Amino acid sequence: MSLLKKRAWELELSVRGHTLQYKKQLEQWQWLDRSEVERLQQARLASLLSHAYDNVPYYREVLGRAGVVQDGGNVRLERFHEIPLLDKDAVRANFETLKSNDLPLRTWSVQSSGGSTGMPVELIQDKEYLDWSYAIKILDDEWTGLPMGEKHAFVWGSVRDTLAGNETLRTQLGRWIRNEIWLNSFRMTREQMERFVDRLNRYKPVQVTAFAENIYDLACFIEEKGLSVHAPKSILTSAGVLYPHMRQKIERVFRAPVFNRYGSREVGNIACECERHEGLHVSAGTHYVEIVKEDGTPAAPGEYGEIAITLLTNYAMPLIRYRIGDLGTMSGEPCACGRGLPVLKDLIGRTTDVFINANGDRIDGRMFIRLLMLKPFIHKFQVVQEAYDQVRIVIVPVDKTDDHRTRYARDLAELAEDTRKIMGSGCGVEFEFVDGIEATASGKYRFTISKVPRN
Ligand SMILES: [Zn+2]
Q1: 289 in any annotated domain
Q2: Which 8-state DSSP code applies to residue 299?
Q3: How much distance in Å is there from the Cα of 284 to the middle of ligand 1?
Q4: Do residue 196 and residue 324 come from a single domain?
Q5: pTM value?
Q6: Same structural domain, 328 and 275
Q7: Ligand 1 centre from 278 Cα, in Å?
Q8: By three-state DSSP, how is residue 431 classified?
């Protein structure tokens, strides 16, 4: 049956576009050595830049000014770092001029994303980009132990299912062909979690793909209640940050290895772990990933910085050096698997607000991430600026049974003092211990929230 479904799925894909062809291409690219990968990226980057210069009004100006492309089409990649970073605000402000002039000749659609920061951003996505994205997804599945057509379960927040009340008939048919079941984790009650376990036990999926937070919560629930659960061959986590203690618990409870994947609604799947688990391999033929320090210069391997993505497949609206809103580091070492694709070593998803203190200073929320992420007793946190001189730090502790205020009194005092250093000596700091912090629709959650008006 699964072979039959696989054939039906492949047929559907070959009718709809180039996904299977692109997947073959990705399969070859993954085994190139490091220098071949670099050459491939440079060639694809140069062709994107010259397309952008010729067809996209915004980039004609920006690339010309940065001296990256000159009239006559000469691309100077050594000046790539001179291109200003692009963020959501810039996309919103320049939406019209970021469109490629050849849109009428392309097949494209509009994607709205980024509800997590409050203001959604609209992007134009090329059909080619969508086909490449699908191909990456299928390859990632194979890397992580799920051949096409095998039983696949999702523990995933589906906005569509939540809004529709249920799966539509068309969705149901697609999921049946792909051999998928979806456990909608948008709101997970204890009764629902019990039903999820029951469905997993009956369906026996080869792989479970899940929001990191949700499968972790489910693992905690299963362990706490002493339930028995089907062990899939692997678990693929995506969306949100997978902390080491989360990975350990998920692997223990499901008796299966966890693979992490990194992606976003704006640029699709960017990187995925291979069987060696030494970091996440960047899909280098489709995504050029840079780690940029606060002053805009490139970070060295092992150094943390902001992740900027250049999408090599979306010609309808090129995104060049796009600030995706996450922090990470690149590894300097090749992975033992032999793939030459660059390795993202560590990832910190973030969505931060800027705080403004009583003096009018603007404080980057990342300051708090650095303070709080180093405390081993903190599982998750959120920093809320209630007023100019009042900050509330919400903490989900690793061990929920502790008497935190006594046991971590020194850490809390230190955090309060550091917060006052950042915000001003008159700032009040309170701590709140909670069981969970709600994630946004995209599966990420906001690290910092400011309730203080900007001006
Ligand atoms: Zn590898």
Answers
A1: yes
A2: P
A3: 13
A4: yes
A5: 0.79
A6: yes
A7: 6
A8: strand
